[in-house]
Specification:
mainly alpha, 0% strand
């Protein structure tokens, strides 16, 4: 159960990063369109900030699922049985949501 709680904590953190990245992209893009400020490099652009935060959230989800599987295997449980547990399903669902957010930032 501790591994489940840890995975859900990582899911919560990753969802926060993904949603904050998308929100920052939309907010800063609106300010940029309104004020027409000069770009100062890739990471200072709204797209760069959004892509960085969303990508970081997706990497966190991937690493959390891998860590969860490692701990399940370490305590001697069959990882195939826990592959479809509720925390893993949440992690995969939010990874897909992150991928959609990432694509919408890239192609906007």
């Amino acid at each position: 159960m501790a591994a489940d709680r840890t995975l859900m904590a990582w899911v919560r953190t990753a969802v926060s990063l993904i949603s904050f990245g998308f929100t920052m992209f939309k907010f800063l893009e609106g300010i940029r369109m309104e004020n027409k400020f000069i770009r100062h490099g890739w990471l200072s652009t709204p797209r760069g900030i959004g892509l960085t935060l969303i990508s970081l959230g997706m990497v966190c989800l991937l690493m959390a699922v891998l860590e969860y599987r490692f701990h399940m295997r370490r305590i001697g449980l069959d990882t195939r049985a826990y592959l479809w547990s509720l925390p893993v399903l949440f992690a995969m669902t939010f990874w897909i949501v992150g991928a959609v957010a990432l694509l919408s930032v890239i192609f906007e």
